[in-house]
Known about the structure:
Oligomer: single chain
Shape: elongated
CATH architecture of the largest domain: Alpha Horseshoe
Number of helices: 18
Structural class: mainly alpha
Helix content: 55-70%
CATH class of the largest domain: Mainly Alpha
Number of strands: 0
CATH topology of the largest domain: Serine Threonine Protein Phosphatase 5, Tetratricopeptide repeat
Distance between the termini: 28 Å
Low-confidence stretches: 1-21, 30-93
Amino acid sequence: MVSFVSQSLRDAPGCGGVSAMFPTLAALALFAMFATTTLTAFSAEAAVSSDDISESVPLSADLESGESEEEFSSDIDVPDFYTGADGDVFALAEDVFGSPDREADPADAVGDLEPFPAEREALEKAQADPNRLNIMTLAMVRARMATMLLAKARAAGDLPPSQSGMDRALAYGLSAVDLVPDEPAFTFLLAQIYAAHTKSTLMLSLAEDAAERTLALDPAKAEARLLLGAILFRERYFGPAIDSFERALTDKGDLLDIRTAGLLGSAYCLDGQTARGVRFLDAFAKKHPKSGPALFALAVLHHATGKDKDAQAGMKKAIPELKADPDAQKYARSLLKEWGGNGQ
Length: 344
């Protein structure tokens, strides 16, 4: 991320010279690397909001307290749907969103995957009576599996999708959207899975499409707008990224973590909008005075614009509010000391 920011900074308007500004951007970029490049996957069971489901639908074969995740998931070997090496992808956006009126076939298995117990029960019910409730239940079960596999794939690190489980996460996520294309929770999950393919510009584009589709279905879903901002940042559309970040954080202030603050602060500098950043973060910090990430980013932007006293005072406020993140707090102290203040 530091090298990306330094390359993008060359000739960027409004940020002064590279030698003067790079330490500031490096500080923001450092925290951008502390988290994964996508948002935490949602809980499919909790996120479904269809009016057709008034309560959670119990499945006797679903994951119970005594079962392990390995027992819940399928052990079958599956083809490598997406390798990132040869341009092969499992599906394009138009495959998912191009025909919203077509009916999904619940009799279909997911690729060559053998149905796991909860899926098999839901699948049998949907095959016997493909009503809205049964189709939604099947989609929920597959979305839960996709969520679990996505979390495992992220924890696995930099492995090919066939080894990390990301290909199976994508398969189940696509199936959930295919079954219930008007449920924003499923489309948002698919956006996260696409965005997790960090080395593919095509998958990043698909993630953007899915995030925008989520917002078309639910304009109030701030998490999807935040994800869209992160995607736009990675695509180097800094102005639109700022717009998405600001609206998401205005709608739901507790979404601002140190990673998002780093991305947003970097975007302000890279797009020549440091003054806008100071205004937004100052207003945000007044509304959320205990937000360590906001205070941190505001202090860095003050330092970037030569307001050293404001920067030191702001970082002093930020340090105690970053206690939940020892690494961020330690770095904030080092910055304050570097700026001539007391970092204790």
